[in-house]
Amino acid sequence: MFVIDSFQPLFDVTAPEFAPIYTAVCGLPLEGAGVVLPGEKEFAPAA
After folding, report:
1. Which residues lie below 8 Å from residue 36, measured CB to CB, with a gap of 6+?
2. High-pLDDT (> 90) share of the chain, %
């Protein structure tokens, strides 16, 4: 079984891998939940 006491150890271990991604997206504008961007296709929720 895999158990962590907090998320901080997980963040510490994965930070080197995700740092370039965070740097690349940090300046992008935030989009609200449910916003469909140009070029994206909206699908109906599964029943």
Report:
1. 42
2. 47
